[in-house]
Design brief:
Blueprint: H1 4-28, H2 34-61, H3 67-98, H4 102-109, H5 123-227
């Protein structure tokens, strides 16, 4: 079974290959028309969906990585999500250009009966199609801006997560040092208590010896006085 790092590299390689295929298909779009162009857009969306599934699989692999590997993996995921969003935007813009047949223009102009009868020579229909296209382009531009903001937010969040992980590791090490210090202090306190007990015992012995000596001196003095 490959290691998480090796498996991650395979995922990255597969994603790059899918993006390369999308590039090739996007380059073909301006050279084709009609149903062939529609099929190309569909093929690109299929590859982008496969890339999205790859990203989901990579996200499940992320917990198996630790330390610097996880930080690098987070950066890879952020980059892949941004690239995927960018390609989807390009495909949406290309899909607007795809509408070069009456049926495609009808889908842009609406679903009511009158709009479905719009033909190439219908000036009002063409005007509406251009207006719809303009609105869609504006919406796509707003979506691109939102995607960039979201990508930046995800990048900042990943940086904060990495920093929090570093701080947690530092806190864990400090806690370990504190426990070692507590153990050393407890051992020192135990030694000091034993020394105090020994000192008290020695003091008691010295006092006892002094008392005995004093008693002996008193007895000797008493005997001397008695003989005189």
């Amino acid at each position: 079974m490959p290691s998480p790092t090796a498996e991650w590299s395979l995922y990255l390689k597969s994603a790059d290959e899918l993006f390369s295929q999308c590039d090739s298909l996007l380059e073909e779009l301006p050279t084709v028309t009609g149903d062939q162009k529609t099929r190309l857009v569909s093929d690109i969306n299929v590859r982008l969906n496969e890339t999205s599934q790859l990203i989901d699989s990579m996200n499940t692999l992320l917990p198996e990585m630790t330390g610097p590997q996880r930080a690098d993996a987070n950066e890879d995921l952020t980059s892949l999500r941004a690239r995927l969003s960018s390609y989807r935007s390009r495909v949406r813009r290309a899909a607007l250009i795809v509408g070069d047949t009456p049926s495609m223009r009808v889908s842009l102009l609406g679903s009511d009966g009158r709009n479905r009868e719009v033909e190439l020579g219908d000036v009002e229909g063409v005007r509406r199609m251009k207006e719809s296209t303009r609105q869609l382009e504006e919406g796509t531009s707003m979506l691109d801006d939102t995607t960039r903001v979201l990508s930046d937010t995800i990048e900042v969040a990943n940086g904060i997560t990495t920093e929090l992980q570093k701080q947690r590791e530092t806190t864990r090490r400090i806690r370990g040092y504190s426990q070692d210090i507590d153990e050393d202090l407890g051992h020192s306190a135990s030694i000091i208590r034993r020394m105090l007990c020994r000192s008290k015992r020695n003091t008691a012995i010295v006092i006892g010896i002094i008392v005995v000596i004093v008693v002996l001196i008193i007895i000797i003095i008493a005997l001397i006085v008695k003989h005189k």
